[in-house]
């Protein structure tokens, strides 16, 4: 979502004796435009990487598949998690809760960012430098009863990525800077789109439809989503300051986009790219259609939010766009039946052990809003 924090300075206005930040038109345009661009990057590259991930012969790299049962349960699990966080923030000290969450996301963020940077590091790592291979093996039992708990293979390139990610993690932990937050947020989003796979379009429609209701209810029906978003100090959202033009990197009045608005439509868009590949027609019609539909839906969300000055559940606009446009194309091309069937050319994936069990935080905040913080 998008949040603007109150402060004294240019663009501030007095409302009922309190100071409310009012973004300039240029500042709001820069903030919203930056958020849209940041949202598109993990969807586009995550979808491309999901194709290679689906074709992986390595069982450790095999993606997790979200079944129709997982998709039906996820809105309920997400609602319970969201409401649980809301109660925690009401009952316990916000400072201690955010400290625990910061440590958790510090570890999770380092792993996610390291995995995100790995392909780029493979390209830029100097060939004249040694690249040693390592293996982290943790077993249980002996002899025939010996069982592998952890078997992780990595090399020097991975250690370089881990070192860089750790620096970003320490930066985030100490300063909570918005750039460090965005690096982790982008990594979480890309990992989610890459590693979480829907088994067919029907499952995608169930998941998006359920979260459509979830998003609308928790934004319009209660203040839970907005309260948790304001209280939750973790990289589960992308932020960009609306006063960036005035204050640069020290800006503090943020527009915010929840990672749920990226990951949820993103895994559906990635599914359509894999469907395009399965057709073997050297065409990416469904992928580009859904990608443009996402841009349209997010743009419409920002327009409505800016017009009515009220928090908007982004999935209210993204879900109909991301499902409706590709389905319309499938009907026109006579491929609707194929689109709702299982994808044939890829090997079976690991069943998901729980919604969002990879290096992606659970219960993503999927609301777009631009409201003054209390």
Automatic annotation (TrEMBL):
It is a multi-pass membrane protein. GO terms for cellular component: cytoplasmic side of endoplasmic reticulum membrane; lumenal side of endoplasmic reticulum membrane. The keyword Transmembrane applies. It is found in: Endoplasmic reticulum membrane; Membrane. Keywords: Endoplasmic reticulum, Hydrolase, Membrane, Transmembrane, Transmembrane helix. The chain crosses the membrane at residues 29-51, 71-89, 95-113, 180-198, 205-229, 249-273, 285-308, 314-332. GO terms for biological process: membrane protein proteolysis; signal peptide processing. GO terms for molecular function: aspartic endopeptidase activity, intramembrane cleaving. SMART domains: PSN. Coiled coil: none annotated. Pfam families: Peptidase_A22B. Belongs to the peptidase A22B family. This is Histocompatibility (minor) 13. It comes from Callorhinchus milii (Ghost shark). The gene is hm13.
